[in-house]
Amino acid sequence: xxxxxxxxxxxxxxxxxxxxxxxxxxxxxxxxxxxxxxxxxxxxxxxxxxxxxxxxxxxxxxxxxxxxxxxxxxxxxxxxxxxxxxxxxxxxxxxxxxxxxxxxxxxxxxxxxxxxxxxxxxxxxxxxxxxxxxxxxxxxxxxxxxxxxxxxxxxxxxxxxxxxxxxxxxxxxxxxxxxxxxxxxxxxxxxxxxxxxxxxxxxxxxxxxxxxxxxxxxxxxxxxxxxxxxxxxxxxxxxxxxxxxxxxxxxxxxxxxxxxxxxxxxxxxxxxxxxxxxxxxxxxxxxxxxxxxxxxxxxxxxxxxxxxxxxxxxxxxxxxxxxxxxxxxxxxxxxxxxxxxxxxxxxxxxxxxxxxxxxxxxxxx
Length: 365
Known about the structure:
By secondary structure, this protein is α/β, with parallel strands linked by helices. It has helices at 8-18, 21-28, 35-42, 91-101, 115-121, 136-149, 167-172, 187-190, 202-210, 220-225, 239-247, 269-279, 295-303, 313-345; strands at 47-49, 64-66, 69-71, 75-77, 104-107, 126-130, 153-157, 231-236, 252-255, 286-289, 308-311, 358-360.
């Protein structure tokens, strides 16, 4: 990683130079024509910030409590698989950096380090992400291990009844290398992810075999009976689904289009955020992921109602270029930029970041 990298864009350039094309495409790519991938970033340009003046901003305070866990910043690491693709320590390095930064870490179901190793490395709150597998016993076992290891919430991804058509992976015939495994699951469940032929993807073949497309709202009761942990639903993009999530017992919702990796043409996450926030009680936290690259982006999402924001790809850029220190640099940049933005906005507390802090960007004449 460049010493003293000043922006996430600089870390991105360094990561791209570091990684093979196949792994870079797996991390960076979206589905279809990647319209939604691009739109996630573009959505932030549709808002302008409304700074207030003559406010004491000697101290800006970004700390909060989320589902009972204190955080030093309204920032978390989105669930992503196989961190060992880019660094030998994988998720344990990521967990250590998150703890040092006071950020949330959502470990992916297909993590390449065990839940127990991740928990031992972490000094901050941990959540575990789940996909709905055909093998319910595998889900039950993961939930039990997460509870025993001190994870504090479950994040059920609900936008993947089948995997998005990720053309970069198909063109590359991408498969997970044999020395990197989803170590928290039976190898038999994951075998397809390690095999691919020209024009196919091991990721897509694994999802076709193992993801259960029959998931409905009624199934949340099954998961609720098996855990005392809060349940967060990831992949909510409409007011209708936000209301149904609350009706069926979700403790929080995560506005997400899977980083543009599922339905291409889906609404950008930031554009969906206000209607989701308006659809749920104020007691139900709404989170967002997708396209956040600066502290000003973070402030915009918080102003539109997100309680916290998760970042994905930038964390892997940092991990690829500097291991734990690289991840910490990414998180520190975002936190410092957020505090800087709060000061110049004249809004030194998170509670001050409401919808009066943003306005639609003026239309061009």
